[in-house]
Amino acid sequence: MAKIVAVLYPDPVDGYPPKYARDSIPVIDSYPDGQTAPKPEAVDFTPGELLGCVSGELGLRAFLESQGHILVVTSDKDGPDSAFERELPDADVVISQPFWPAYLTAERIAKAPQLKLAITAGIGSDHVDLNAAIKHGVTVAEATWSNSISVAEHTVMQVLALVRNYLPSHEWVTTKKGWNIADSVSRAYDLEGLTAGVIAAGRIGQAVLRRLKPFQVTLAYTDKHRLAPDIEEELGLQFYPDIPALARNVDVLCVHAPLVPETYQLFNEELIGTMRRGSYIVNTARGAIMDTGAVVRAIDSGQLAGYAGDVWYPQPPPADHPWRTMPHNGMTAHVAGSTLSAQARYAAGAREILEAWLAGKPIRDEYLIVDGGKLAGTGARSYTASGNGSSPGSTGL
Ligand code: NDP
């Protein structure tokens, strides 16, 4: 019998939805690199339901309880008196989501002697101290690819929203009940003909480049490793050797690099000051890649024409976080990767991981971040440990 603690975001303020905007979602069988979508033995939910919140329970309760396991679901995750901390000491498995991260710090892992598996329902396990997981023999797994395209779509949406001044134009006809054409268009441009750059052409970054191409923009990117020449040629990509070189040569900059010490607070006043006046930044990677105050000052001075994204630091941000109220922002909460479409995939991924682990079978290599006391699978390719890892505990981020 295992005890599984799932930390999920709170239900909608009006309660769990009795019905949905659409009757079904498309079935996605595989991802752009050929990896197959999650294939658990069964699921106990209807794809398209709200699964990521407390009442959604990632659709796991019937499956786990039918096998005699205990499932505890809570959204109360922060501080020593939280339900999460109370449930941790005898937990075998913790499930969390980057949107509402249950930070598994070294201190918390030390308080959970039975903990053997930490599942990220989604992508991005930087809320887990990977060094501590390695040291305590905790396996860390995530549903690789499950929401990468969801994030890429959100990024493109926010690029268009900023460049075309969509949100203020919408507000003029709705909240303000106006018909203010000049007010709306005095900051609106076409994306066509601009130069759009992507920092890190991994799964999300490359999907963004592919989705921006039909807009007839000039495309540029930087990454630690250059893409294959045929991909550069197919997408017409200009490669820059580092982030500063890319930043000063584009009009629109999309950030898709992980949060690691070298990207922490990278976008400070100095770097933003080298960008073209009136540039736009869309950051759906991690909030702490930006110096919060530098972004606000650049918006106020006009150095940046707009800033958007769905990641903040800290998260959730306080009510008076300046990005909530600064002009020309298109911010959302951390929602890009939690569409109903994505939830169906990462809930199925969490179930697939649990089915394998409970049966003593290997977890798919592409889902593994840490296993057997070391970085493994996708983790060995995308994460670092030993003091320069991407986890909050190891970096102090
Ligand atoms: P991938 O691992 O597929 O790609 C990351 C890319 O970043 C790799 O190509 C890597 O290069 C490159 N890279 C790493 N460090 C640097 C650096 N210092 N400078 C430039 N490039 C660098 O990740 P994903 O595309 O799946 O995700 C990207 C980020 O998006 C995640 O780290 C996460 O923070 C965020 N994310 C946000 C979500 C959301 O809901 N908003 C959801 C999922 C992820 P190489 O491999 O060649 O070393």
Largest sheet: number of strands, sense, barrel closure: 7 strands, mixed
Strand order of the largest sheet: 2-1-3-4-5-12-13
- Into which percent range does the helicity of residues fall? 25-40%
As a percent range, the share of strand residues is 5-15%
CATH architecture of the largest domain: 3-Layer(aba) Sandwich
What is the 3D form?
globular
Number of domain modules? 2
Helix/strand order:
EHEHEHEHEHHHEHEHEHEHEHEHEEHH
Q: Poorly predicted ranges (pLDDT <50, ≥5 residues)?
A: 386-397
How widely separated are the two ends?
A: 36 Å
Number of strands: 13
CATH superfamily of the largest domain: NAD(P)-binding Rossmann-like Domain
Give me the number of helical elements.
15
Binding site for NAD(+): 148, 203-204, 223, 284, 310, 382
Protein name: Formate dehydrogenase
Subunit structure: Homodimer.
InterPro entries: D-isomer_2_OHA_DH_cat_dom, D-isomer_DH_CS, D-isomer_DH_NAD-bd, FDH_NAD-dep, NAD(P)-bd_dom_sf
